[in-house]
Task: inverse folding
């Protein structure tokens, strides 16, 4: 197959039965400086490796927007090494299936057990936190680069997808800079074309009482015939500082830290 000098991306309608298998591997290394019981400074080194695997199936559609999604948390494991003390944590959602629903753009997210009964409040909050933007029809902006794209062209349309990819477990409060530039066009299976994008992103978020800033760069692979993101690889620096609460006070028990973050996400698409 001869690879053309330009590539165009299209989006396909959301269909009932559409399945996505999402796999994410994350690695974070951080150094924190805190105070011990005697008010003496202590350095704490942490390294965490996490793996998340989810199967998502569209079960209802509203105006070309997925309205209800069946989610199975196949794998949710986090291994944390703190100064040589290793702990393996299996997430509470692992092995469970839920359905997530948003009836309209203005409606709140509903989370249900596989039986159809409403999920318990704590569990529902955890699931809903990973699907904050689910079921929104958007602002009418394109989700993929518009028109024929040549190597060297930049795309702002991929920014939101990038932010969503790194925001698991955190609330993104600001996107200070982000960009994606087409660096290569390659041939894929079944006559598909893949666009390889070089990406950079700087985001600020909130997680666990800390303000988190990430400066990341890497690559993103986008498929031409359906605009599907096949792979995201990002890495770079991360810094956290105690964040002020609603009363403007900072929790001194939350230490500041700095380190590095790596993320690899792959997506496989099928029809049930």
Result:
């Amino acid at each position: 197959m001869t690879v053309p000098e330009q590539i165009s991306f299209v989006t396909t309608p959301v269909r009932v039965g559409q399945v996505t298998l999402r796999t994410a591997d994350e690695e974070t290394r951080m150094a924190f400086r805190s105070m011990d019981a005697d008010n003496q400074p202590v350095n704490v080194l942490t390294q965490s490796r996490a793996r998340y695997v989810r199967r998502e199936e569209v079960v209802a559609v509203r105006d070309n927007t997925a309205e209800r999604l069946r989610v199975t948390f196949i794998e949710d494991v986090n291994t944390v090494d703190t100064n040589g003390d290793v702990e393996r944590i299996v997430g509470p959602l692992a092995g469970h299936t839920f359905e997530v629903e948003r009836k309209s753009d203005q409606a709140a997210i509903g989370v249900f057990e596989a039986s159809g009964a409403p999920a318990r409040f704590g569990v529902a909050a955890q699931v809903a936190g990973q699907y904050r933007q689910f079921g929104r029809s958007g602002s009418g902006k394109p989700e993929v680069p518009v028109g024929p794209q040549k190597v060297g062209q930049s795309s702002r349309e991929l920014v939101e997808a990038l932010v969503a990819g790194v925001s698991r477990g955190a609330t993104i409060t600001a996107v200070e800079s982000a960009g994606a530039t087409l660096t290569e066009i390659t041939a894929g299976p079944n006559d598909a074309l893949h666009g390889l994008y070089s990406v950079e992103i700087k985001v600020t978020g909130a997680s666990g009482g800390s303000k988190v800033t990430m400066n990341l760069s890497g690559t993103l692979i986008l498929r031409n015939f359906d605009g599907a993101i096949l792979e995201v690889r990002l890495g770079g620096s991360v810094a956290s500082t105690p964040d002020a609460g609603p009363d403007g006070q900072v929790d001194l028990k939350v230490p500041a830290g700095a380190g590095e973050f790596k993320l690899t996400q792959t997506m496989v698409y099928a029809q049930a």
